[in-house]
């Protein structure tokens, strides 16, 4: 079972994270307990529709993996041999350019399917992106061969996997459109308008989400503040004029 867990921990993490990773890898992961099994079914009700033999194999072969916030789970080019079923925490998936600048692809929440992993498993290729634990997590690593059997033999599971693939592809197409055809100030305005109240966030986090640099985001935010659109505080943004921000959001390239 060791190979099912190995790809979720790489050697580039912190020392405490590496110790936890070593425990998971060397022991073959944490065996499924009753409460873990209940969480897995609550997050992934599609498992209730599996044939009895496949469900039994999931219970026997899936291994529980735990990781702290900040732990790198995989990186661009690392091997992929298992499918994650997240039951607690969040994962941040990103893609880096040659200069090291990152763009956020998506956040993975409990009960969702990781399309980066699906692409790598189905194509028998390394991971095409990077993933980092955003909040402390627990997930079950399903070995590749079992994942492929689930896709092949269970229509409900197959629909679940490909529905998420379709949803994420639509999101990524919209992201490409944003990055290629919209100014950074428009994209930043759109991002800020998603929030109703005060926004607690760092300039670096905003930059990572938009695929730009902290300096660019800070400059635009300062401009918005000088125009009376918002007020800046320490890791805090308060929108003062949503209509003005809407106009930036809707502005067309000249």
From TrEMBL:
<dbReference type="GO" id="GO:0003677">
    <property type="term" value="F:DNA binding"/>
</dbReference>
<keyword id="KW-0238">DNA-binding</keyword>
<dbReference type="InterPro" id="IPR018490">
    <property type="entry name" value="cNMP-bd_dom_sf"/>
</dbReference>
<dbReference type="GO" id="GO:0003700">
    <property type="term" value="F:DNA-binding transcription factor activity"/>
</dbReference>
<feature type="domain" description="Cyclic nucleotide-binding">
    <location>
        <begin position="46"/>
        <end position="154"/>
    </location>
</feature>
<dbReference type="InterPro" id="IPR050397">
    <property type="entry name" value="Env_Response_Regulators"/>
</dbReference>
<feature type="domain" description="HTH crp-type">
    <location>
        <begin position="182"/>
        <end position="243"/>
    </location>
</feature>
<dbReference type="GO" id="GO:0005829">
    <property type="term" value="C:cytosol"/>
</dbReference>
<protein>
    <submittedName>
        <fullName>Crp/Fnr family transcriptional regulator</fullName>
    </submittedName>
</protein>
<dbReference type="InterPro" id="IPR036388">
    <property type="entry name" value="WH-like_DNA-bd_sf"/>
</dbReference>
<keyword id="KW-0804">Transcription</keyword>
<dbReference type="InterPro" id="IPR000595">
    <property type="entry name" value="cNMP-bd_dom"/>
</dbReference>
<dbReference type="InterPro" id="IPR014710">
    <property type="entry name" value="RmlC-like_jellyroll"/>
</dbReference>
<keyword id="KW-0805">Transcription regulation</keyword>
<dbReference type="InterPro" id="IPR012318">
    <property type="entry name" value="HTH_CRP"/>
</dbReference>
<dbReference type="Pfam" id="PF00027">
    <property type="entry name" value="cNMP_binding"/>
</dbReference>
<dbReference type="InterPro" id="IPR036390">
    <property type="entry name" value="WH_DNA-bd_sf"/>
</dbReference>
<dbReference type="Pfam" id="PF13545">
    <property type="entry name" value="HTH_Crp_2"/>
</dbReference>
